[in-house]
Amino acid sequence: MKPIIHNKRDSLFYKDAIEAIDELEKELGKDKPKIHKPSMVILGSIAILVLVTSLIPLYSMKVNPPPSLIKINYFKLAQQEELALESLNTEHFSTINEAISNMNKEDYRDVSVRLATSACRTSSRVCYSKALYTFIRNRIAYINDPASREYVQLPQKTLLQEAGDCDDKSLALAAMLESIGIDADVGVTSNHAFVRVNLPEASFWIRRNSDYVYLDPSSNRDFGEISFREEEIVRFYEIY
Question: How far is C-alpha 216 from the chain's CA centre?
Answer without folding.
Answer: 13
